Amino acid sequence: MYDQKAGDLSALRKLGSVYSGADGGRGTREEEERERIEIALLLEGLYRLYGFDFRNYAYPSVRRRIWHRIYAERLLSVSGLQERVLHDRSCAERLVDDLVIHVTEMYRDPSLFAAFRERVVPLLRELPSFRIWHAGCSTGEEVYSTAILLHEEGLYDRARIYATDINEEVLHVAERAAYPLKKMQEYTKNYMRAGGKDAFSGYYGASGNVAVFHPFLGERIVFAQHNLVTDRSFNEFHVIFCRNVMIYFDSILQNHVHDLFHESLCPQGILVLGHKESITFTKHAGHYETLDQQEKIFRKIK
Hints:
Blueprint: H1 4-20, H2 29-50, H3 59-72, H4 78-87, H5 89-99, H6 110-124, E1 130-135, H7 141-152, E2 159-165, H8 168-176, E3 178-180, H9 184-193, E4 204-207, E5 210-213, E6 221-225, E7 237-242, H10 251-264, E8 265-273, E9 288-292, E10 297-300
Parallel strand pairs: 1-2, 1-7, 2-6, 7-8
Antiparallel strand pairs: 3-5, 4-5, 8-10, 9-10
Helix pairs in contact: 2-4, 3-5, 4-5
């Protein structure tokens, strides 16, 4: 018996392969140009109607995620997805969820947090109070990692942490400070490698299969929606974390975000980027000194 569902899915994937060149070639130049136009129109509509601007995101990543959403919506083309997105906000939100990358964990890249403890904490000790911005905070694990680190260094009562993301749903998760209990073993290892000073289990309680972090860790954190592409600076910060966000942006958008961070950092402020990111080829390269090249920690000097 013919399986209609399987047949439809096969047809969708075959169509996608025409555009991707999965059948052995890259498709015709006309097909590639048509697809680029369709994607540009889709992203323009998403921006004009809903305010989400992905027009300067790296094209290969955007294209791949758009086709993922086309398959998921059981559509046949980028234009078909555009029509649905423009008339169905829930579809637009699903597409935005696909386009925004959410990868995080407690003490992700433990060596970064160890370096932060060694190189940045002594600078923060000299301040009566300080503000930290976690830009693109996702579900908040790294925000609470920072809160724990500052607590252990006796500095948390001086801090105000602003944690922002484009996606409201992940912010709701972050505000709840509740994560799968099964991840705590891995997070404990990260915490120890990052130079943790206490028992990591002392910072959360178990409720069923969920680990809920103690409320005091959230007392000095403000979670808010902020779009790095379209929104402006909203405060002056002593530290900005933005790790592995700009790798999905093209050079134009990367420079735009670096403008935003430079404007938002106070004199001698600290910028922390992801391992694959750099300020080297931006117009602000001469405005920072390097505190840790491997961990991508920079200090604003002008």
